[in-house]
Design goal:
The complex is a heterodimer of chains A (302) and B (283). Chain A is α/β, with parallel strands linked by helices and 302 residues long. Helices cover 40% and strands 25% of the residues of chain A. In chain A, strands 3-2-4-5-1-6-7 form a seven-stranded mixed beta sheet, with helices on both faces. In chain A, strands 8-9-10-12-11 form a five-stranded antiparallel beta sheet, covered by helices on one side. Chain A is elongated. Chain B is mostly helical. Chain B starts with 18 loop residues before the first helix and ends with a helix. Classes of the chains: A alpha/beta (302), B mainly alpha (283). Chains A and B meet through helix 2, helix 3, helix 4, helix 7 and helix 8 of A and helix 2, helix 4, helix 5, helix 12 and helix 14 of B.
Chain lengths: 302, 283
């Protein structure tokens, strides 16, 4: 793979460990011969099988345990983005074979599909060839269906375009739960003064007993949102804060028309591209953006 | 990975308060839905005390899952428990109340999965490459020499020094040599009696050591990015950690700086935090 290529995101659905190993080893060895940095992401037992199959080449491949990698889409994307950037310091391009890790509920399958869809958007500029491997016998059918919708290419003997591939943003939009109105939040305003905004947010965090390390994150994340409201949203109309479901919530409502991009905050920062929403997603548990009668709202959950 | 240091004899004095003794309070009374939710949220944020409480509360349930894997043999109870604890903490980081699934119903999936993967890893037949065989021979020779010279087992660091192998490589090679031990294996207890391995392992409900797991899941130490002065300014201005909020002028007077200089320090500190958040995954 030469460095002028951009992200290739393929799905590989396999029926047996032997098939997984044969295909993955061939893919990686080809990459090693071309001078690519090569990665394998699997569980510990999966990595052990791959080490064994790669033999001495295993020393030239970076293995990582996906057992604790996938928490939420924003953080998993950030981990991959950083890993790829690190690998690209020493190689013109990267090849990776990564196994998925998703939980037992339909909610989690949707979140996983969201993550896979976002992968197409998060770092499209990187010369990285990712093969996402799925065990057909262990992957629930709805998740397998989503695999075909979220990967532009399918690896099956050779590579072919997925007939079921969908616009990633449409998938994310469809699978993101509608934000619910939260009652019981305190409404306040400090105008367009960012320092006063932070001072008030800090007091609200103390009121809700948010621990120091989480408070600091929220202070930085909410500053990003407030700053965006001032720069792009015509100013801050209202702020609402309080606790819901055991978490601190901060809503910043601005006077602008907002944005209608379900991938906002999931695109990796690059020089010349804003990183405020990315920062906010990284530092909070969840971020929601929606239009309401009060204006355009960005809601952060700590 | 084996954590043999966690095997504790029942008769060993406890130098410090154990997780188990703290757990008694937690296990004594069931958690309300709200208490459980608050613990899960705090654990997700990286609050170590909350992680401990959550783990303590669910240790009996984790032990129940572990028992099913023990019947197959080949793995140690303590190892299974630690995989279970790791699975529980991972579940706390992923759990979303919108799933409308009770926490344990969700977490037990990850607890079981962690144990399954560990069993698969430990019991997987290992075929070693020539390279690995040479590495193992190197390790054995280094261990033998160390034993002869010092009459004591070498530490991992000493083995790494002696062989020139990287710690991760060393760990990986040593793992291939571990022999699964049965819980019912007879081992010497004292001069006149014997006991099974099971007897020598402390009650896992009381003695599981999981500090390393908490270390692994620790969130990016945001405050650790700041120097003392930056931290003082941010903490004092915004009343972080129960402080009384102060104006920039008051902070400046205390530090011998102008209010404007304090404002600059604060702006630099916030910029440092945002830049790090843009570049580093927050885990």
């Amino acid at each position: 793979m030469s460095s002028e290529h951009q992200l290739r995101h393929q799905a590989f659905v396999y029926e047996s460990d032997d098939e997984y190993v044969a295909c993955s080893v061939g893919f990686l060895k080809e990459g090693l011969e071309s001078g690519d940095a090569c990665l394998v992401g699997n569980t510990r037992d999966g990595n052990a099988i791959m080490r064994e199959a790669l033999g001495e080449d295993a020393d030239r491949v970076t293995f990582y345990d996906v057992g604790s990698l996938y928490t939420r889409p924003a953080r998993s994307l950030a981990t991959y983005n950083r890993t790829f950037l690190e690998q690209l310091q020493a190689a013109p391009s990267v090849r990776a074979v990564a196994n998925g890790q998703f939980g037992p509920t339909p909610h989690e399958w949707n979140e996983w599909a969201t993550y896979e869809a976002l992968t197409n958007l998060a770092y499209p500029d990187l010369p990285v060839w990712v093969v996402c491997a799925y065990d057909a016998n262990r992957t629930p059918q709805p998740a397998l269906d989503a695999v075909l919708q979220t990967h532009p290419e399918i690896l099956s003997g050779d590579s072919r375009a997925s007939e079921h591939y969908e616009d990633p943003r449409e998938i994310v939009r469809r699978l993101t739960p509608e934000p619910q109105h939260l009652s019981g939040l305190r409404s306040w305003s400090t105008g367009d003064d960012l320092e006063r905004f932070r001072e008030r947010i800090a007091r609200e965090l103390v009121t809700e007993n948010v621990p120091a390390h989480a408070a600091l994150r929220t202070l930085v994340a909410s500053t990003e949102i407030a700053s965006n409201a001032l720069t792009h949203g015509g100013g801050i109309e209202e702020v609402r804060t309080g606790s819901t479901d055991g978490r601190f919530v901060c809503e910043v409502i601005d006077r602008g028309s907002g944005f209608d991009d379900p991938a906002a905050g999931y695109i990796a920062p690059r020089p010349g591209r804003g990183s405020g929403l990315w920062v906010a997603r990284q530092l909070t548990w969840r971020m929601e953006a929606f239009k309401s009668t009060g204006g355009f709202t960005v809601r952060l959950w700590t | 990975m084996l954590w043999e240091g966690n095997l504790t004899r029942r008769d060993q004095p406890r130098a410090t308060e154990s997780a188990g003794s703290r757990a008694k309070d937690v296990r004594g009374s069931p958690l309300s839905g709200r208490q459980e939710r608050d613990l899960v949220v705090a654990a997700e944020r990286g609050d170590r005390a909350a992680c401990r409480q959550l783990v303590d509360h669910y240790l009996p349930a984790i032990a129940g899952v572990a028992q099913r894997f023990e019947r197959g043999g080949g793995v140690q109870h303590a190892e299974l428990m630690q995989e279970g604890v790791a699975g529980l903490l991972f579940a706390a980081r992923r759990y979303d109340p919108r799933m409308e699934t009770p926490f344990w119903a969700y977490a037990s999936f990850w607890v079981r999965k962690g144990m399954q993967e560990m069993v698969a890893d430990v019991t997987h037949p290992v075929a070693l490459s020539d390279h690995a065989v040479r590495g193992l021979a190197l390790i054995r020779a280094a261990r033998r020499e160390h034993l002869e010279a010092h009459a004591a087992e070498p530490t991992m660091a000493e083995l790494a020094d002696a062989t020139g192998l990287a710690p991760a490589q060393l760990e990986s090679l040593l793992a291939t040599e571990r022999r699964p031990r049965s819980f019912d294996e007879i081992v010497p207890h004292d001069a006149v009696t014997t006991a099974t391995l099971r007897d020598q392992i402390a009650d896992p409900d009381a003695e599981i050591a999981y500090d390393h797991l908490l270390d692994e899941m620790e969130v990016l130490d945001f405050a650790g990015l700041l120097d003392d002065r930056e931290r003082t300014v941010l903490w004092s201005h915004y009343g972080i950690d129960q402080r009384t909020p102060e104006t920039l002028s008051t902070i400046g007077a205390r530090l011998g700086l102008t209010a404007e200089r304090v404002r600059q320090i604060e702006a630099d500190a916030l910029e440092k935090l945002r830049t790090t958040a843009a570049e580093e995954p927050a885990t």
